[in-house]
Amino acid sequence: MSAQEQLMLNRAAFSGNARAMEDASYAVSAIADVLGDGGIELSGYQHEGLTQALKIVADSLNDRAAYIGSEILGREGDE
Q1: Residue in 1, 6, 19, 7 with CA at minimum distance from that of residue 64
Q2: Which of 70, 23, 30 is nearest to 50 (CA)?
């Protein structure tokens, strides 16, 4: 792969990762607001659903971080 092709690939990856992280941040913030609002009564189902959504977002962010670490920064394994 040429240096130009690698640069273009890296820019696309960073752009996608930035969008995913922005979306995740928005979702986490909204869920945290709901869970932190004592005035909103949640059923067990609702609480568990919001908790699961936070776990999904955390997994997505972890996947993005791993991708950046290995593919962009050249890291191997957990650091």
Answers
A1: 19
A2: 30
The crossing angle, in degrees rounded to 10, of helices 44-67 and 3-36 is: 160
The amino acid present at 65, given as its one-letter code, is A
Name the one residue in this structure whose structure tokens are 């659903």: 49
The full set of domain ranges for the chain reads 3-72
What does the block give as tokens for 48?
């568990």
Cα 25 from Cα 29, distance rounded (Å): 6
Q: For 15-69, how does the pLDDT look when each residue is reduced to its tens digit (9 = 90+)?
A: 777 777 888 888 888 888 888 898 999 999 999 999 898 888 888 888 888 877 7
**One-letter amino acid of 43:** S
Distance CA 21, CA 57 (A): 9
Which residues lie below 8 Å from residue 10, measured CB to CB, with a gap of 6+? Answer: 72
